[in-house]
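All the exercises in this workshop are built on plain-text protein records. A record pairs a protein's sequence with a compact description of its fold. Read left to right, the backbone structure tokens trace the chain's path through space. Once this layout is familiar, the rest of the handout is easier to follow. Here is such a record, shown just as it appears in the course material:
>
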Amino acid sequence: MGEEERSGDERKTSEEVDAGALFVLKSKGTWWHCGFHLTTSIVAPPLLSLPYAFKFLGWAAGISCLVGGAAVTFYSYTLLSLTLQHHASLGHRYLRFRDMAHHILGPKWGRYYVGPIQMAVCYGVVIANTLLGGQCLKAIYLIMEPNGEMKLFEFVILFGGLLLVLAQIPSFHSLRHINFFSLVLCLLYSALAAAASIIIGNKSNGPEKDYAIVGDKETKVFGIFNAMAIIATTYGNGIIPEIQATLAAPVKGKMFKGLCMCYAVVIVTFFTVAISGYWAFGNKANGLLFTNFLNPETNHYLVPTWFIFLINLFTVLQLSAVAVVYLQPINDILESALSDPTKKEFSIRNVIPRLAARSLFVVVATIFAAMLPFFGDVNSLLGAFGFMPLDFVLPVVFFNFTFKPSKKSFIFWINTIIAVLFSCLGVIAMVAAVRQIVLDAKTYKLFADV
């Protein structure tokens, strides 16, 4: 224990003494702060697309994939945490995913593979959340002004303005109170979404329930892999090392407690929304569950409008927290490149570059979100391309390389099977996601008002 404490206090080896480590990845948090960060990064509004994933899988396969995703990600995140703890006990506390890849697999893995993939995933999440935030703001506006003429891109810009302010919060640890609020919000909107689905499903004039998987053979096959990519993205994190970096030394056991807190929320939210939403709408479930609450024939909501208002309000607020969490690895890179670690964090020398760089990245993300209203399809590609390797494959590979379990042992083979299986699934899901992008690109226009 004493050795781990010393390594935690002396965590900044020569390659880690930079402004990103000093100013963004501050190691001051407790295990429950870690739980707040984990919950915000995993239990996010993309869970509202789970009923849509079920429509390509059906009841048995849908629930099996949901259970399997929970089991495999909890297992892989635990292995990743144990690997980080082991290296910390040896005097090398790695604060970033790319640092782990650099030291465990080799420099090229960190620089040319893990680093770029993680940044693409994080920035993709920011763009997707900005778009979804704009859509929820528009839904709130249409409740108050049914004949309103404001366009989607205007609401995306409004959400981008909120994100522009929150992006200036200096460090990951500074988000702990916001992320506690985020945990409460995800419980609230998930409960409201499930309640609305049950209310609508029980109505005599509600949608007819049909759980048949529709489409030709090709569509069904690609739909299965697209659904798997959606579920993988929903469980995705991609920033476990950066979250563990926020823990104060000694780190032993703290991440596991945080994961237990997070997955308690995962089970409550993911399963209630997925099961209630699919039960109510069957194969008519849309990519965002909220849109099923509107009757397309009468253009009236199937539940009271205050229900819709609260769901969208809670979702908008949590989306802002999720986006800021996924900005942290990007902020870490920006601070490392632009700030001077020998100067004070809030000196003019460091504040001005920080303000300019963070603002620029948020503005660009907002422009992309407004310009590409079909970014949900691109996010499926990011899930297959990014979340699959970062959350399913690399953790077990890191564990095997670090601890070198016997090739005759159960853990070696279960890790190898997970790595091979999800590598193959990731490639197939990428093909399915690209196919869906090609199909949908024919129907969407830039800055479309959807």
Remarks:
- The beta strands are 294-295, 300-301.
- The chain has one domain: 2-441.
